[in-house]
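Sanity check

After download, print the first record. It should look like this:
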Amino acid sequence: MNRVNESTTLQLLSKVWSGQSGVLAGKQAEEKMTSILRNKFPKAQTIEVNDISGGCGAMFEVNVITCEFDGLSTVKQHRLINDTLKNEIKDMHGIRISTGLPDSS
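Expected structure tokens:
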């Protein structure tokens, strides 16, 4: 591989890894999605967003525990999460969602 191709490849990889392509990855994406979910579910006891793709932003795990899910089926709870994060989800490979109500103890 010549010097020009090596440089171009490195620049492209740098953009992917650092999120400069317009797609947030890693900690930035986790923080952005956590903020969006906190705004949507202000009474949430737990909101956790983790990049489980090794930092590239392809796969996320989301956990939301809130009394605001009271009376909703699991499917409806997950739909709320999907609707809330629809703009972020379109740039992902996948998302794993876990939702529930706080313990009543």
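If your output differs, re-run the checksum step. Summary of this record's structure: The beta strands are 46-51, 59-65, 94-100.
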